Amino acid sequence: MAEADLRHRDRRGEWLPDPLPAPSALFSWPLRLWPALKSLVAFYWPYNVFYTVLAVVCWLWFTPDLSRTGTFSVGWIAEIYARNAVLIIVLYGSVHLRLYIQRAQEMRHKFSNRWPSTNNRTFLFGNQTRDNMFWTLVSGGLIWTAYEAVTLWLYANGVLPAIAFATSPVYFVLLMLAIPLLRNFHFYWVHRLTHWKPLYKSAHYLHHKNVNPGPWSGLSMHPIEHLLYFSGVLLHWVIPSHPLHAMFHLMHAGVAPVPGHTGFFKIEVGEEHEINNGGYFHYLHHKYFDCNYGGEIIPLDKWFGSFFDGSPKSEVKMRARRRRLKGAAS
Prior knowledge:
Layout: H1 3-6, H2 33-61, H3 66-69, H4 74-101, H5 128-156, H6 169-194, H7 197-202, H8 223-229, H9 243-255, H10 257-260, E1 266-269, E2 273-276, H11 280-288, H12 300-303, H13 312-329
Antiparallel strand pairs: 1-2
């Protein structure tokens, strides 16, 4: 391991990014306009801009026309699953290939100093990556597709309140921009729900086998959790939306877990450039389980006392919170 890399690791070999996670300035009070604007730009660029473009491309060229989706048919539903599976394999697989098979940057910027398990009976097939791929492509891909197929069927049959870009262009664009924020809000509450003991023991435990997550860990969940996780699309069953909005909502849920689960703080591109991948905030959740349930853009964890940035000071607060909760439960 390079000497420069060692300087960023604690005594246990864990990577400590600089700076540590901090609540977004977007919802701080009093509002500071410039930091809030920077937080918003960082939230959308580059990942959410990429997901938006990807959704538009897939809607225009790789989604069955509504003239076909008015009647359930294996053909068009299989096309949606094939598109979703290709997206998963290309996006999840390419990151895994570079960082974990080629090991192009070795341990540089990797949070844990360990690689994913390859001989561990905790996982299906005794292999963490194969286990994650199975749950992602089989359970995740099928439930994502099922939500999308039913939603397109409802749009095609005039059941859902629909809009068109030509008649509501401003609302159309604003709703597209809002979807990543709405997903962040929805994810926090669904994630807190899955940490309710009965749901954790029956479903969410499967995702938390990945104490040392990799790219394929992001969508590796129990079918019960996938049903809850993708349920954000039900918003578009209620509010006026275009079918693209619903498809984007599901696609965002399907592909956005990649950066937060790469296990690396930065991804090196060439010899001189790096993409700030973030992910440390959610990595801490996988490591400690009872903190950082949401994302950083909407500071729900800060507001509800579960924010943890990995610093010794924050760890003292987290232990005190655990003692209070344990005392209240007893």
